[in-house]
Amino acid sequence: METLLCESCKSPTFLCKCNNTWKLFNETITTNCGGGTVRIDDSGVSFTPLRISTMTICFNFNQFINLQILKDNSPDFLSVNYKPGSKKSKEKKKKGSDEMFNSLGIKICFVDRSVEPMIFSNVNIFIFFNGKVTVSGVKTINTINIMIQELIEIITSVEGVVENPENLIGENVKIQMICSDFKIKPLKEDPDGWCIKQELLQNVLVNKFNMSATFSSLSRYPGINLKFPSVIEKDKQISLLIFRSGSIIITGAKHAQDLSEGYKFITDTIIKTGMALFYHDINEEIKQKKKKK
């Protein structure tokens, strides 16, 4: 009833100290994306630490899962949804629905108490009869371990859900996507209302660094869409969405190293471009001050 353990360190294989990818995930983010302040002439720029907003992961159990029995006997505290049906069903999926065809959906909150302050992850779990599992909403690496252990306990507590409860394990855990964000602002006594000149930054990214960066001021939420090459996967890219407020979203990454490189590149670029990249907007200042009330 445990996840597969590493023979060397006896930790779950996807969190073991022998696996540098998992071991160094938090260390990479903390060390390389910890925020900071850089002086530029009489002013400067400050940027917040990178925050993992959500991760999508997948893994599989080593046995088939009887979803109907699990649904009928699930604990009362679980929010469970299961509607067996064909993927080719003509019934349209409701907009905003969290359903996946032929899967059992579970909504549950996990708490990672290994960090201070504690981090809460409201996750959506989709379990398929063949044992495959997709999870969205995870915020920490440790939460992955907590979640798998909890699922094993839930599944094995109901008779008939799996053939060999004592041998149920989770394996082949992979991060499918990481969404993260941070903010960058000029050093001012009152930073509210200071914005990034997006067209200027786009020109710098395209002409100076030969990057793929698009920008349209006509979109509902105008932002620069910068494509940054993965340092881990050949021919793969991550996306950096840069908004005039200084909010920056990094999405599409699967590895901490890609987050780190993307974070470093855009902060270095903004710092080197200097204060000419920022301007003050009184309407933005009013909007930001209203949010703080």
Automatic annotation (TrEMBL):
Listed GO biological process terms:
DNA-templated transcription initiation
Concerning InterPro entries, the annotation shows:
TBP (IPR000814), TBP_dom_sf (IPR012295)
Asked if the keyword Transcription belongs to this entry, the reply reads yes
Q: Does the keyword Transcription apply?
A: yes
> Which interval of the chain is the signal sequence?
none
Kindly give the SUPFAM superfamilies that the UniProt entry links to this protein. Answer: TATA-box binding protein-like
Single GO term (MF) = DNA binding
Q: Which UniProt keywords apply?
A: DNA-binding, Transcription
Q: What family is it from?
A: Belongs to the TBP family.
Q: What is this protein called?
A: Uncharacterized protein
